[in-house]
Hints:
The structure is a single chain. The chain has helices at residues 19-27, 32-40, 46-55, 62-72, 79-88, 101-108, 149-156, 174-178, 187-196, 206-218, and strands at 3-8, 93-100, 116-123, 130-132, 162-168, 182-185, 200-202. By secondary structure, it is an alpha/beta fold. It has one domain (3-218): Rossmann fold. Helix 2 (32-40) packs antiparallel against helix 3 and helix 5 (79-88) packs parallel to helix 10 (206-218). The radius of gyration is 17 Å and the shape is globular. The structure holds magnesium ion and zinc ion. Magnesium ion (MG) is lined by residues 9, 11-13, 168-170, 172.
Amino acid sequence: MAKPIIFCDFDGTVTQSDNIIAIMKKFAPPEWLELKDQILSRKISINEGVGKLFSLLSSDLKDDITKFAIENAKIRPGFKEFVDFARVKSIPLYIVSGGIDFFVQPILAEYAPFDGIYCNESDFSGETIEILWPHKCDSLCDNDCGCCKPSIIRQLNCGEDSFKIVIGDSVTDLEAAKHADFVLARDLLQEKCEEWGINHQGFQTFFDCIDEINKRIEVGELSC
Length: 224
Ligand SMILES: [Mg+2]
Ligand SMILES: [Zn+2]
């Protein structure tokens, strides 16, 4: 029987909407819109696009941006219950995020501990905000992901009997979804899973995610 292991996105998944988009809407000059379109249409890589987006912002804004991101973030219903569910069932739960440490870490703090939190990092020591990429693509990914979810999945080396569940919503989850045994998807990710014939189910809340995983445990498809 397969052992479930969960890789959960952060922006637009744990939170109801994308924190980077919210930050840009609030603080960035209008050029950010074109960069956003280029990222979403995959004309430029996530790494390049997100780096350029944050370079539009002055490092002096650090405190304002951090405060705004934390206050603005709405957690998707059922997340707390979902984290408890994974803990009770001893299902490893990793947060893999294309978001940035200065808002990902404080927002997740009250739900900790996780088996791991992977996200990008930030440097406010220069004139504008610089994004650091501690989880770049390995030699098997040429997608220039920024925070490379498939590389993280490979690095964790889950084992032959693992059943990899990817939860996500958008462009940063596409490569991870291709490596998943099952995807819980919203929004753009859901459309792409349909288009590419990836084994998936849509969801609205984390209660839906609990139900979908529980179903598979009950029929004996998964053991934990
Ligand atoms: Mg997302
Ligand atoms: Zn990659």
